């Protein structure tokens, strides 16, 4: 079961499993952000410390409106306009609401979120009914994975959702909304 379709990927996330999927530039590992057991498996697979936190990826603003302070802020228009662009995916570090589990934030008061235009990821978030975890599919400290074959070789126990990378050379930029500084 190395490659799976959208409906199987959705079912697996809903069942508390970890999957891999193509994003704008690299393959990602994802799970239900509210399933602590699935999240811990994801961190174990990556050999990633909890303190680093992860990104949440969503199909639209409605999926994350209860997870971060997005509206009525000095920087709200900047964030919302950036998410309208399919050509420049941007992840924003935003003030987290109490609904975001501490394992997602790495213990911070902020959460990193991206609204995606990637067709397969957008469809996955829509089918799942909310945002999912999005962290690069690689062992912590190693280069991000850019092919299905490499993803399967690195994580043979993780099913990979069918699809293609969008062709960006680098992962999304990460910006701090409150400070308006680029972090990556």
TrEMBL record:
<dbReference type="GO" id="GO:0000049">
    <property type="term" value="F:tRNA binding"/>
</dbReference>
<keyword id="KW-0808">Transferase</keyword>
<dbReference type="InterPro" id="IPR050156">
    <property type="entry name" value="TC-AMP_synthase_SUA5"/>
</dbReference>
<dbReference type="GO" id="GO:0005737">
    <property type="term" value="C:cytoplasm"/>
</dbReference>
<keyword id="KW-0547">Nucleotide-binding</keyword>
<dbReference type="InterPro" id="IPR017945">
    <property type="entry name" value="DHBP_synth_RibB-like_a/b_dom"/>
</dbReference>
<keyword id="KW-0548">Nucleotidyltransferase</keyword>
<dbReference type="Pfam" id="PF01300">
    <property type="entry name" value="Sua5_yciO_yrdC"/>
</dbReference>
<dbReference type="InterPro" id="IPR023535">
    <property type="entry name" value="TC-AMP_synthase"/>
</dbReference>
<dbReference type="GO" id="GO:0061710">
    <property type="term" value="F:L-threonylcarbamoyladenylate synthase"/>
</dbReference>
<protein>
    <recommendedName>
        <fullName>Threonylcarbamoyl-AMP synthase</fullName>
        <ecNumber>2.7.7.87</ecNumber>
    </recommendedName>
</protein>
<dbReference type="InterPro" id="IPR006070">
    <property type="entry name" value="Sua5-like_dom"/>
</dbReference>
<comment type="similarity">
    <text>Belongs to the SUA5 family. TsaC subfamily.</text>
</comment>
<keyword id="KW-0067">ATP-binding</keyword>
<dbReference type="GO" id="GO:0005524">
    <property type="term" value="F:ATP binding"/>
</dbReference>
<dbReference type="GO" id="GO:0003725">
    <property type="term" value="F:double-stranded RNA binding"/>
</dbReference>
<feature type="domain" description="YrdC-like">
    <location>
        <begin position="3"/>
        <end position="184"/>
    </location>
</feature>
<dbReference type="GO" id="GO:0006450">
    <property type="term" value="P:regulation of translational fidelity"/>
</dbReference>
<comment type="function">
    <text>Required for the formation of a threonylcarbamoyl group on adenosine at position 37 (t(6)A37) in tRNAs that read codons beginning with adenine. Catalyzes the conversion of L-threonine, HCO(3)(-)/CO(2) and ATP to give threonylcarbamoyl-AMP (TC-AMP) as the acyladenylate intermediate, with the release of diphosphate.</text>
</comment>
<dbReference type="GO" id="GO:0002949">
    <property type="term" value="P:tRNA threonylcarbamoyladenosine modification"/>
</dbReference>
<keyword id="KW-0819">tRNA processing</keyword>
<keyword id="KW-0963">Cytoplasm</keyword>
């Amino acid at each position: 079961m190395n490659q799976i379709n959208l409906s199987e990927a959705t079912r697996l996330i809903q069942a508390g499993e970890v999957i891999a999927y193509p994003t704008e530039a690299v393959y990602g590992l994802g799970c239900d952000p509210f399933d602590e057991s699935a999240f811990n498996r994801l961190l174990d697979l990556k050999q990633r410390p909890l303190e680093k936190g992860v990104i949440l990826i969503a199909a639209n603003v409605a999926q994350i409106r209860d997870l971060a302070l997005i509206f009525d802020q000095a920087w709200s228009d900047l964030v919302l306009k950036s998410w309208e662009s399919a050509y420049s995916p941007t992840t924003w570090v935003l003030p987290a609401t109490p609904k975001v589990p501490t394992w997602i934030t790495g213990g911070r008061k902020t959460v990193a979120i991206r609204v995606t235009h990637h067709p397969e990821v957008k469809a996955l978030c829509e089918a799942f009914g909310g945002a999912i975890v999005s962290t690069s599919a690689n062992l912590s400290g190693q280069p991000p994975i850019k092919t299905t074959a490499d993803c399967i070789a690195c994580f043979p126990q993780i099913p990979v959702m069918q699809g293609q990378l969008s062709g960006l050379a680098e992962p999304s930029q990460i910006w701090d909304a409150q400070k308006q500084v680029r972090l990556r």
